[in-house]
Amino acid sequence: MPAVLEEFEPIFGEPKVEWTGSYSGLGQSSGFVFYVHSPDSSHLRICVSDFRHTTWESVRSVSQLDDMRDSVGIGGPWSDFIHYMVASIKSEDVKLLLEALPDSNDAKSAKLVAQKSKGMPRISFSLTELTGSSASDAMATLSLELFKAFRGLQHLFMQEQERCLQLTKVLSAEKEKNETTQSQFELNSKRQKLQRTMNSLDKADVSAPLITSGQNSPDKQAARDPGPAKVTKRAVPAHRRAKVRGVVLQDSENDKDG
Description:
Strand order of the largest sheet: 1-3-4-5-8-7-6-2
Structural class: alpha+beta
CATH topology of the domain at 11-130: Dna Repair Protein Xrcc4, Chain: A, domain 1
CATH class of the domain at 11-130: Mainly Beta
Region (Disordered): 175-258
Largest sheet: 8 strands, mixed
């Protein structure tokens, strides 16, 4: 026996209406809404209504759905068939096929056909027209479920809106924090640059007197001002020597003996 339908989520949609037959439904309302849900764990219910003239219904048991799986040709486990059926009903290609009565504005039969994508197997539900209080009850149930679905979506939207608001506040706070950090960083960078400049100027002021003092030291002063140079006595050239006159030359001992 296939698994039950306890986790089946309700599905709402608007089918594309197609009329068949000689009359083709001229003048009939084409605004229909369908509602697929699981009233209990063993049945699937399909309700289609225009809320004015016509309401249709189909109820399938789990065993009937299992037979449908065989006729459609969806192999594999039961869950694969359920997933394919849900995907088909939620697709854009869901049609309500109405067969018109001859020379009448009414439809004698209806069928809801869903297809996941072109070329894939079709899921088809033959519908039974409801009348009197059954139709009124079905429309009332459909209206109430639509309202519940709307409230649920509205609640989710408000939650998401609040979440977005909180995220916006967090992002704004982070942006402000980053801007403050960036400003502080730039200020610190300017201070450090100014401090380095001042340190360089202080070093220049301290080293300047030392250089001047070193330049005026006795050793360096002496090197720069060597003082008066020593006069070296130079030999007087022979032609400039004074001539000595009137000198009496005495004969040597050898001359006397001679």
